[in-house]
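in:
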């Protein structure tokens, strides 16, 4: 049961946006705000931080991965060239 009230001061533009979003979803502005607060919970902040840390790690690792892939492609090309050379001498 909802018995508590929260007063929130917003600009006219924000109020218009809230009303439009709520109307588009067939709900009250209060319900829209409650759902938004539920969706934006503390764990999402923690997950965002974790994602940022993983992104940093990936950005640091990608250049090395690219070098490894280039080296593997070069080694494969050398091996294929060697196989082709052996076939042509037979």
């Amino acid at each position: 049961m909802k018995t508590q009230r929260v007063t929130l001061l917003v600009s006219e533009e924000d109020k218009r946006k809230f009303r439009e979003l709520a109307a588009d979803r067939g709900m009250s502005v209060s319900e829209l705000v409650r759902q938004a607060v539920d969706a934006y919970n503390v764990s999402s902040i923690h997950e965002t931080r974790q994602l940022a840390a993983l992104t940093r790690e990936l950005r640091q690792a990608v250049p090395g991965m690219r070098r490894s892939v280039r080296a593997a492609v070069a080694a494969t090309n050398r091996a294929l060239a060697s196989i082709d050379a052996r076939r042509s001498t037979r």
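note: The mean pLDDT is 91.
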